[in-house]
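User: I want to check something. If I give you two sequences, will you return the structure for each one separately, not as a complex?

Assistant: Yes, each is folded on its own. Here is the first sequence with its structure:
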Amino acid sequence: MPPSSAQEVETYLTKHDLSDILSKALNACVQAQPDAPLPFLIDELKGSNAGGGSSEPRSAQSVEEYLAKHQLSDVLSDALNATVQALADDPVAHMAAELKKKAGGGPAYSASHTGAYACSAAAMWASISEWAPAHLVDVGPGTLEGVEGTGVGAVRTVLFPGPDGNTAKWTEKVTAFDADAMTWSYTCTSAVPFPIDIDTFVCTFSVKSTGADTCEATIGCVYDSDAPEAMEPMLGPMYKSWADASFDAAKRTRPETAATINIGYIVPKDDADRVQGVITKHTEWMKGHYTTSDALISCYFTKAPLFNVPTDPSQGESDKILFTLNEEFTGPDKVAAHIEAAKGNDYFPEFGEILGKYGIEGGVVQALGNVWFKLDSARCEGARPATGATINILYIVPKDKADEVQATITKHTEWMKVHYGGSTDALISAYFTKAPKFNDPTDPSKGESDDVIFTINEEFTGPDKVAAHIESAKGNDYFPDFGKILEEYGKVLQPLGTIWFSIR
């Protein structure tokens, strides 16, 4: 509450020795005659706050002349008035912040954590650059929903339980992302339940190498605030917990994939929003269910139009949308447990209806896949790039043709290992699976059909890299047979998918 009388103002000034502190800072400034007085005054005020800032008094005339020369009278008056109006507990810091704003120095406040960590910079960057990081949600208290995209422009919604029992909600957006420099930033795009000016708030994450297996990570922010004393004690420790959690995640060795779920849905455009809404309920459950689990290794869900000619998107789109769900588990038992646990959710009847209508009947459901070929981003040094586009293909092949099909696809894998062996500039990762087609995909105990399901799952840095991949592959001698298999057995052909949910 602002002061209500001149007496209250005088009391406040006296209590905090503001008149003396400001006088000392101003005298020091006049004594030094700096060309840029505001930064000098800010430093002097900070020194006064620490017990320094003494200087010989100057004459009233010399002070007046200096104030007039640099047009400081109004600036100092505004800063002092703002401090008094706020009745700040730390008026010197408040006044320094006000002067900083007048000096054009950006947001008045900052908070950060910088720590040394015993892992490679690449490993730390891969962890700290995640936009939907389970390891950061773990340290709470907030949770994430509505995570969309990667890199610049990606958005997410944060849910934060308040002490009154109500949950606040706000949105955040990535404004900068440089994988080479290992730095990225986000801002808030809606109001937050804290005394932070969202127009000035920017949070930045960065990593730099200090050795083969050591690095330095920094998380920090800048912001303006009407109540900085409420924010400063909170932000630094929070950023430390985030960086430490990222390090813990970076240290964890990625388990070997022992089983997969790969589902391809073909959905009419007019039902796509409903389908995505139901699948989103599944993603929310997964984020909570697998926060610290040793069952789910990674997953990513994609969405794309069904093109009239899958190998040539320029020939237009059909009236269908393709969704794919791609999940890697540590063992077949974990897949079975996943299915049973998911069945207990209130959304599952509708999820099962969509699975039957657009997966089993019109698409492909591979409930227990085995990875037989893999190119992981770890094959190359450096951070994992953000996925910009995917290829996801699901085949249903008669058992008596399975070996022939796999032999042809193997030729494709041999070419990929050479073509993409030393770089993740185009292909980030890929895994190919094989599994029997079960009579009932949700219950393998009911037996196998006479078909085999193959899946091809590839992640690229951008749509242009997908187009280049297809064109390059067409030049290989095996491609006529590969194309024949695609035409004859390909049931879900998604050559240009976009990831809208992932856990890694």
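And separately, the second sequence with its own structure:
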Amino acid sequence: MQFLWYNKCKEKQQNASKSLHLEWMRMYRYSNGQIRLSDFKQPMGMNLKEDNRWVKRALLIPWNDIEKRYASLFTNRKGNVAKPLRLALGACIIQADYGYSDEETALQIQENAYLQYFCGYEAYDDSKPPFDSSLMVYFRKRLTAEVLGEINEMILVQSKVTPALESVETPAEKKTDEQSETDDDDKPDPPTNSGTMIVDATCAPSQIRFPQDTALLNEARENTEAIIDALHISGNQKPRTYRKRAHKDYLKLVRCRKPSAKKIRKCIGQQLRYLRRNLNTIEAMKSAHSGMLSEKQQARLDTIHKVYEQQKIMYDHHTHSVPDRIVSLSQPWLRPIVRGKAKTTVEFGAKLDISVCDGWTRLEYFSFDAYNEAQNLVEMIERYRARTGRYPERVLADKIYRNRENLSYCALHNIRLSGPALGRPRKNEERDKKRDYQDQADRVEVERQFSLAKRKCGLGMIVTRLEETTCHCLAMSVLLLNLRKLQRLLHAFFRWWFCVGKMPFVQ
């Protein structure tokens, strides 16, 4: 009797798992993989060329491996069949490469046969857009910075740029039972250091209005007035907000060509009082009428409370700095980052660390808060060792990375950190000027990657409005850098092969 009951339960579980798998397959449709250009169904009169950059770029990405690993991110148990991962990733790459908007990206894929081939289409179809433009936000949220970092490594592994992560053994894995039984004299020598790692940090500015205290307080006051209007019940008397007088006081300062510090401080004090009155009114209306705000309105109200507290502290103490200062109501996670550059001393965006190894770029760390990039050097070196199985021979970085902790760590692992020693130069100390010059020349490579990423890969100005999508743009720009380099190498190889094939044999 117990066995019969067990068999029936087992059959129910198997049937349930089969139905769940069939339901998941109905909600997500796998792509057919990378097809040949000759199998791509083209309309009459259209002839796609194999040397097109999007055709070549499609061959550089392991679509099948990426889809098998991350297809679960694009499944939805409700609604229509989910879009394939290749379409989502391809659309994000196209947008980052061209700098299109969400609407323009969907239209360009609809009208361009090469882009459709890159996104995994089996035939050219311009009857309708491939997806609604609002889904681009969904794609960016699903393809997080961690996912794009792993996809970047998968692309480099396929291109034989870096060894597979599974093939790199840790020291604990290398110590087998047979090795433990052998003598110490028979053990092989540890692998020597090899390779060069170049590290540096930069800032990716976000597209926001330059923050001013008066403009920020005025925007916060207008938002509180909108919240009061939303909480107001028809038939009751609306509380007084003095919005016309507050707006008039703000315009008095804005219309001044060069307002003095006294006028600016007076305007800040006025806006603080108006804002404080509105916040008290909102709290009274929420408690009296049990008014409920939406999630977006409540988040905005919490941000306004923080802005008021920070501005009140700066106003009372006659200062212009405060910890974790909010510079935008729509993007409260952004912080001012002092870079000390000649063009802009302060930038508002994300700060990121990248490493360049053999010309290939990786995103090592990023944060919206200002941080000391020297604290991440040890972790970056350890990740280099996890990829290659050995430590780098030299690390090229600027002087901010040269603190005592990093120098001692590099000396312990026989790593040469570029630059002079700390403190005063010793008497009769001789520096290898040729080696120092070569280090400085090689370190230019990371600056070249920054320049290319900001000019061509969307890192110069982040236009997304959400924190998750901003992180996506940072990782996508690095991935696009490697794709561009792989494509250039592929083009150079085919050009060399073509020239060699055409050259006559000379004895």
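Because they were folded independently, the notes below concern the second chain alone. The first helix runs from residue 2 to 27. The chain is about 50% helix and 10% strand.
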